[in-house]
Amino acid sequence: xxxxxxxxxxxxxxxRNHVAILSSVGCANDVSQKLAYMxxxxxxxxxxxxxxxxxxxKEQSARTLIGIGKNPNIAAVxxxxxxxxxxxxxxxxxxxxxxxKPVEYLMxxxxxxxxxxxxxxxxxxxxxxxxxxxxxxxxxxxxTLTLGVKCGLTDTTxxxxxxxxxxxxxxxxxxxxxxxxxxETPEVIGAEHILAKRAATPGVEQDLYRVVKECEERVKxxxxxxxxxxxxxxxxxxxxxxxxxxxLGAIKKGGGKTLQGVLGYGEIPKGKGLYFMDGPGRTPxxxxxxxxxxxxxxxxxxxxGSPAGSLIxxxxxxxxxxxxxQRLKDNIDIDVSRIIKxxxxxxxxxxxxxxxxxxxxxxxxxxxxxxSYGMISIWNIGPHM
Amino acid sequence: xxxxxxxxxxxxVATLLADVDANDVVQVMMGDKTxxxxxxxxxxxxxxxxxxxxxxxxxxxxxxxxxxxATKDIxxxxxxxxxxxxxxxxxGDLA
Lengths: 385, 95
What we know:
The complex is a heterodimer of chains A (385) and B (95). By secondary structure, chain A is of the alpha/beta class.
């Protein structure tokens, strides 16, 4: 059960070896893009947050960006800012450098402008790429893995086939000493009592009920029926009738182990085992939060065949829908539709997903990785000023 | 024969594993057992039909859990979906 990865200075293991150009603020994206044009082997990480945000919302954006920078799939980080933003490049770089990986920052207003900043950034990247290119994979154990699980374009095959098959993998990862992060708070509505029974402590149980209640209260405050937003039109077309039905299938992808804790969005777990991360079900935000929480790999069950990906954490997409497996081959890494045809057990399907997990961890590019499909989208919970 | 699955023995709906036309008889898998049921109308793959009559106001049960409430009387073999079931959760429109 060996896999191979890059051991970082803090002892964590990356299964990719990116040199990242990370914007601290949306205003710096142009600078990041210009540097990425010069260094196309660097991983360009742009987003829209980082300034004119308040309180918990600002903290959440900062926490997520720090978590992304710390993600062990990233070998080195150049943080790009303006110098006038509330989440500064200097602040992010200082926090990310706790990992002892190479981290530099650049703030355009402190560099006498863009023309001076670009060559300085280029020199940092040149050095980082040179160093990263000389790193070698080494054999490591499954306990080095933090696995994210997130479902998308769910249909009724998800709850019957792909989610429970992935639950088998989640259980194996935890039994081997690893960590699994399950997310998507709206998709626990109607199934929270099942997950809560597995809470390690009464405090964890209360935390889970609290985040689900807060999520449902936000829906109620909107004055709208959640249906149409979640389940979304694609879910309804796939046979999902209510959020309760969707949730009862969705939680199966986390397996059946004890729930060790409830994380804030983009928060890194402090221990091993199963964790729940608060956050929306919308795919780009959910995947970004999991990368921020340190997931090196994400497994993504999809009934309807979403093309989703993450730039930071390879996403393995699994379908239990035979039509999707046939029609949308380019979007699907693993087909477990034999389950609903009665030709395969959940355990056999779980084993095929697990083998792909080992392959991807050791370097195999997923479908979405081959296309560099993905984006950073941070869950925004407050007004922009 | 076309197939459907009942996930938990407490369920009053089955999920279809094929497209069916009105009056098609399907083989329903329920754990180790199988039974046969006639589906009353055209229903798509992945959608649900009632295994027994569900009256307006009664719970719709799948995975052995309540997934919603019938908004109309639903006869055995009829399509069960958004046109005759509502969520009991996340109802800002009722708050």
